[in-house]
Amino acid sequence: MDSLDFEALVAEALESLPEEIARYLNNVDVVIEWAPSPQQLHRLGLQPPQTLLGLYEGIPLTERTSSYGLVLPDRIAIFQRPIEQLCRTPEQIRAQVRRTVIHELAHHFGISDDRLHELDAY
């Protein structure tokens, strides 16, 4: 899949969010990268062949205080190559992109991976 088509899938996932969620996405930058960097994997304690589909970097809403301000945007990276390697069809890619976007946004809202597992969000 070319990068523009993949970008459109990410945009579609973001545009499909309910307004009750979308209004809290101020100061969040969603980017598409080909693959996670070795530094990102190392920081998370991951080594190939472990797969990373997306990554939230920032200060979750639940951890912000009244002194939060004048900070760089939170960053959500969606990794195209690992998603494409995991999926076999364009429909699977679309579904996985949406799932990954929502997963990373959950981290923005302060929901941990452990809690997502508890909620059967995987």
Describe this structure in words.
By secondary structure, the protein is of the alpha+beta class. 45% of the residues lie in helices and 13% in strands. It has 6 helices and 3 strands; from the N terminus they run ααβαββααα. A 3-stranded mixed sheet has the order 1-3-2. Helix 1 packs across helix 5. The model has no long low-confidence stretch (mean pLDDT 90).
Précis, in short:
This protein is α+β, with helices and mostly antiparallel strands and 122 residues long. The chain contains 6 helices and 3 strands.
H/E order of the elements?
HHEHEEHHH
Taking all Cα atoms into account, the compactness measure Rg is 15 Å
Mean pLDDT: 90
**Distance between the terminal alpha carbons, to the nearest Å?**
25 Å
Biggest beta sheet attributes: 3 strands, mixed
What is the beta-strand fraction?
5-15%
Key terms:
3-stranded mixed β-sheet, alpha+beta, 6 helices, 13% strand, globular, 122 residues
Topology, element by element:
Elements lengths: L2 H13 L3 H4 L5 E6 L4 H6 L10 E4 L16 E6 H7 L3 H19 L4 H6 L4
Parallel strand pairs: 1-3
Antiparallel strand pairs: 2-3
